[in-house]
Amino acid sequence: MNDPKIGIYAGSGTSHSWLWFVDLFEKAGFYDLQFLTEDAVQNDDIKTLDVLILSGGDTFAVAESLGKKGGDNIRAFVENGGIYIGSCAGAYLPMNSSKPPLDLFNFVDVKITNLSKSFPMAQVKTCKFCTAYGCDYVFHPVREAVSLKTTSFFDKEKTVEFPAPLYGGPGMKARDPSWVLAVYERFTPKTSFLTTRKIAEKTLIGQGAVLKIPHKEGVFYLLGPHLEHPKFKQANQFIADAICREISKKHPYIDPAEKKMGAARQQLSGKKAKELLLPIRRELSNSRIVAGSLEFLPVQWQIGQKTYEPQKIRVYLEALWKRLNVLDKFKTISLDPGISEKIATSAGRTTMELRRIKQQIDADQESLETAVVIFDLLHALAILFFDLYFSTLSTEKMHRQTVKDLMASPPSP
Amino acid sequence: MEYLSTEKILVVDLGTAHVEEEEMDEALVEQKIGGIGITKYLYEKYMDDDPVVIGTGLLSGTTYPASASAQITAKSPVTGKVCHFPVIYKLGVEIKYCGFDYIVVKGRSDTPVYLWIHDGVADISDASDVWGKNVWESTDALRKFVGDELLQTMMIGPAGEKGSDYAQVCFNHWGSPDRFGFGKLFGAKNLKGFAFRGMGMIEVAEPEEFVEQSLELLKAVKENSFLEKKGLAPVLDALGEEGAEEWMAPVTHRHSADYFTPYATNTAFFLDEDPTLLKESKKDEPGVLISDIYALIEFKKLGLSASDAGQALKACAKYGIDPFAVATLGKKTRLEEITGSFDTITGTLPIPGKGLFSPWCPAAPVFNDFNLSGDDEIKTWWERRQAVAMIFGIQPVFALMCPELTEESMLEFANIGTGLELTQEVLDAVLDDICG
After folding, report:
1. What percent of chain A has pLDDT over 90?
2. Mutation test of the interface with chain B: which of A275, A278, A288, A293, choosing the one with the most B Cβ atoms within 10 A?
3. What residues make up the domain containing B379?
4. Which of A87, A324, B232, B430 is the most buried (most CB within 10 A)?
5. B39 three-class SS
């Protein structure tokens, strides 16, 4: 099988959970990744993808950012055979809704089970319990690990039970029961209850946790829990397997020669590669240091419908830092001209804004505006960096494959 | 060098503003072990450029008890000898976590600079904003700029910039074991100092065994009855300075230990705040952290109250001047006279033995006698003990207290940690090279 071409939405409204998909795909060896902003979705950069990923975040903010054009392009993408995988906020997004701007994404007939007309009773007072959703409230009865069980529509022969964490994702009732691949089976000792157990059970247990909804030539996969979370290997495997199954059905064989990297891509090795990475290392380190110190401060920011703690900043930075150390060990770095300068500049701006927010917090000043800028910058920085990283990984993988093919082919007469 | 090492030596040329990295060679460790074994080697290698060499010990920053220290080696502008003094508090280990085992700074910059060392990156940064500022102001300014209060600094103050023979390289806000005028050397290089922050880790060859044996050793160490004591007062008492505890009591706020060191070798005085205060003070810095036993003794001998002695030590730390020199050579008895005398101190400080190690450290065993008898035996033992502590990165005052931290155990841990086979013969050869 050829690497599926996967687009991960990393634009406005997403939380850090898209980084978990990056981890998952890297472990699965899927290196043909494209990182998408709202502009890219609106410009229909998604039409050449096999898979489109919409991770967690603020559903309203994502819908707002993508707008009608983004919605139309996603619909066309799936209708033409694309695979949409939405997790948490990405699962809510394509469900039918009358509430603008969600009504731009009315693609699937699925009901949310954790929706209430009245403000529900919270057992634990937390801003993560409930969100206004039009005239109703989406409430989150539990957080952390829950146990899912596959249905006969996933595998007729056997069912499998595995854990996955729930951080605000939906329980789902499908119009067609055959869409349900896994249900919420039980709570686990690690489940944290935000409402009474009785309400939680009524809301979730036996309800759809993973849905596969055919839509013309394509398919929507909706994941209530974060199956992509890096600590849940079985759940990760579920996603990787689903992609492999869909791709093998869908793809004719593509000659790897056709998928070769653009000729304009630079290859740098040795001292030059090290020199190229140094400014990135410098600024990422500066950012990590100030981000680490922010974690000692009693602050959080409400951006749209989501609450952000300083710890989230370092989730981004550590995702890049660990991969920078991997890049350091590569003999050759493959990149588009100018991208390393862009990464260093972007990281430099991130450092500057992080230092600014630290000073604002120390001086008891309002810092929300700077926080918004910082999370936008982190998304942009991560997108640039992953482009460099995965192009290097892809090139390396292709190089290894070419060597393998050459070794396997019989010598010419 | 894969284990107990960052695998890197940093070489900074201030003259050309060029930074270079050398690979940390395992053969060098097999030959020189670490700490001052290697800083001396690097000093000799770059001798023509009048280098300052900072180095971590082989065990620095591990779970070996008191593995807190790094060290600085250079030619003292005062004694003219190549000598070493330890880097204490939490600063020694931060250097290793920053991604370099050793840092060589050679040459002289045309303009004031400081070195910002972080996560394997070394930046020669413009120090014009902090040049002329005292140690406290400089440290605060850099911490604010970087956005991290945990930033560790090694700075000079006005004394070093003016080229005083008693200029001290200070650590964060506090005084240091520098009795060799290294602050003057920094000043001559136009080097305001270093800022360190590292979030790195150290790999250990046999991590489980290393931690297990560390815990066993720590358990044995903790059987020492002296560990019921805390802070500087009992040390002064053990050195024969009677009445120290009562003298210090009115201003003593707390005691503080260096990284992973079972005895708190530092005492904090509250000078502008109630010393009995248990919650965090609202004042920016209401006191002073003291590690300098002999400076404290000298101020006491001059008849100062502990509060005035604390104020004098605080003023010295800000100015970046050796408080022992101020007390011994200045011989002023009033606080205002002391703080006004920094630019006029003259004279020669006695440096015991061969002048290799800082007399900041007590000149004899503390709390335990180590079965030593006679001055000569103590002097020989002291020099060897200092050298051993600074090869492996052991807090040098604690090394004088704790018989369980033997050369044999340090070698054993070094071997578990590195996977090498370092022997007593190698250590003896390194000690011969250092101590002569």
Report:
1. 72
2. A293
3. 1-228+352-436
4. A87
5. helix
Say which CATH number the domain at B413 has. Answer: 3.60.9.10
CB contact under 8 A, B146 and A278: no
pLDDT of residue A1: 60
Please calculate the CA angle A250-A253-A258 and round it to the nearest 5 degrees. 120
For A166-198, the pLDDT digits (tens) are: 999 999 999 999 999 999 999 999 999 998 899
B183 and B66 co-located in one domain: yes
* B64 and B143 share one domain: yes
B119 to chain A: which residues are within 8 Å by CB?
281, 285, 288-289
**Contact assignment for B118 to A293 by CB distance below 8 Å:** no
- CA atoms lying within 13 Å on the CB side of residue A276: 27
User: Which residues in chain B are contacts of A281 at CB distance < 8 A?
Assistant: 119-121
Closest-CA distance, A281 to chain B, in angstroms, reads 7
* Segment B57-110, tens digit of pLDDT: 999 999 999 999 999 999 999 899 999 999 999 999 999 999 999 999 999 999
Q: Which of B284, B310, B344 is the last residue of a domain?
A: B344
Rounded Cα distance between B178 and B193, Å, is 14
Residues B240 and B224 in one domain: no
List the one residue out of B11, B15, B34 whose CA is nearest residue B394.
B34
Per the CB < 8 Å rule, is A282 touching B149?
no
Pairwise CA distance, residues A173 & A176, whole Å: 9
B411 and B331 belong to one structural domain:
no
Q: Is B117's pLDDT higher than 90?
A: yes
Cβ atoms A87, A169 nearer than 8 A: yes
The minimal CB distance from B147 to the residues A278, A282, A355 is found for: A355
In sequence order, the β-bridge partners of residue B362 are none
Chain B: closest CA distance from residue A70 (Å): 39
B123 → chain A, closest CA residue: A282
β-pair partners for A150 = A182
Interchain contact A274–B (C-beta under 8 A): no
Could you read off the pLDDT of A285-303 as tens digits, one per residue? 999 999 999 999 999 999 9
| A91–chain B nearest CA distance, Å | 37
Same domain, B326 and B368: no
Claim to verify: residue B179 and residue B130 sit in the same structural domain: yes
B45 and B146 in one domain? Answer: yes
Same domain (yes/no): B313, B424: no
Among B344, B377, B393, the domain-final residue is B344
pLDDT at A367: 97
